[in-house]
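STRUCTURE:
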């Protein structure tokens, strides 16, 4: 019986060449699965036709844009997810969704092998395979670029030999991955970390230095979930898409960093995430207003760990599930509106209001009507300082006795 392989298909050179290559190497039938996570670019119908033209026995195109927005991007907002305090998990968020659909396709077609186009140097091989191990450990995994030392030159030669319906001459100097949540650019001249990024590498954002009028936006949250822009309710996908356009037009969401990869190397990455950076900034501010101090302190640690787990490919791990239970509980009162000014590359919070706010004007004000009883403060400060006072006295005694 001929084996079947489900291939994560992007429509590019590497995964197009993988179709006939896997068929020959494994004596198998290849089913191409392309997932639309809002990456834009080519028409998905064209990508499907190309997969079939390259020899796939079947090709599926799945519109997962709304699913990606609501079930992957929004949880990143709840967790204020910024890996190394900067990276909004652009690529990492899409991988578990892709894995989920690859497993479903394997079950549907009776496939025993799953294939992806990752190399052995990056994070994505781990994200794909850790996800597959959690959801379908019985499936075998083949990665041509990694397992067969498949270079670009070999891929081009093979494509020309097989006369595949794909342009093998077009070569970007960069490696680019993009989706609704953002865009990641690496390699090329960016590998010299002294080289500054040039304007040509950006696509989701305009130059923040160009003169323009500021844009003001009000984002409405309901239990942590972004639900409206400027009072107009929107679906998860539409909200992120519109905010990408508006924040991107102001040059917001550009990140140039050297990050710690899961495989142990440091890598220079340039990211764009206009909506992601704006939504997280607004959400964090609303949490400042609505979450109690000690709970907020602890949540910052949970948020950081959640982001690390997702970056490391452990979306389907027990610890992430447990952390999300805590995060979900904290969002119960994160309801209200945040106003931001979008301008010159920055999303600046200028206002916040909430019916569940913990901010009490009468306690906070220094003007007439102050409800704070300052006579209580003296005793509080004395008790709060007592442990430090006792420790200082002990240290002074030790100095005297040591002479």
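SEQUENCE:
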């Amino acid at each position: 019986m001929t084996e079947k392989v489900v291939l994560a298909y992007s429509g590019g050179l590497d995964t197009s060449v993988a179709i006939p290559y896997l068929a020959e190497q494994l004596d198998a039938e290849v089913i191409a699965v392309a997932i639309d996570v809002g990456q834009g670019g080519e028409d998905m119908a064209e990508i499907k036709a190309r997969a079939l033209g390259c020899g796939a026995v079947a090709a599926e195109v799945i519109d997962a844009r709304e699913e990606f927005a609501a079930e992957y991007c929004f949880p990143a907002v709840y967790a204020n997810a910024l890996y190394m305090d900067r990276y909004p998990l652009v690529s990492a968020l899409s991988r578990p969704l892709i894995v989920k659909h690859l497993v479903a396709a394997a079950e549907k077609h009776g496939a025993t092998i799953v294939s992806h186009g990752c190399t052995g140097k990056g994070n994505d091989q781990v994200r794909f395979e850790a996800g597959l191990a959690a959801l379908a450990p019985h499936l075998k995994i083949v990665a041509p670029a990694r397992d067969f030392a498949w270079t670009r030159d070999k891929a081009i030669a093979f494509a020309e030999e097989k006369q595949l319906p794909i342009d093998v001459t077009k070569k970007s100097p960069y490696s680019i991955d993009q989706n609704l949540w953002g865009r990641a650019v690496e390699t090329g001249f960016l590998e010299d970390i002294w080289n500054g990024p040039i304007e040509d590498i950006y696509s989701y954002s305009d130059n923040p230095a160009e003169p323009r009028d500021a844009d003001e936006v009000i984002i409405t949250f309901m239990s942590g979930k972004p639900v409206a822009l400027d009072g107009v309710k929107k679906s998860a996908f539409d909200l992120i898409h519109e905010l990408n356009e508006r924040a991107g037009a102001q040059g917001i969401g550009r990140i140039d960093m050297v990050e710690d990869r899961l495989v142990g190397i440091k890598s220079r990455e340039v990211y764009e995430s206009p909506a992601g950076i704006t939504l997280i900034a607004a959400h964090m501010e609303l949490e400042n207003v609505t979450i109690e101090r000690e709970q907020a302190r602890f949540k910052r640690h949970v948020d950081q760990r959640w982001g690390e787990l997702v970056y490391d490919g452990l979306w389907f791990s027990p610890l992430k599930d447990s952390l999300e239970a805590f995060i979900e509980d904290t969002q119960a009162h994160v309801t209200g509106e945040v106003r931001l000014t979008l301008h010159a590359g920055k999303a600046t919070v200028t206002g916040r209001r909430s019916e569940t706010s913990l901010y009490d004007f009468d306690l906070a004000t220094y003007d007439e009507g102050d409800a704070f009883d300052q006579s209580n403060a003296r005793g509080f400060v004395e008790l709060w300082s007592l442990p430090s006072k006792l420790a200082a006295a002990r240290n002074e005694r030790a100095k005297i006795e040591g002479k």
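REMARK: The chain has three domains: 3-174, 176-353, 361-394.
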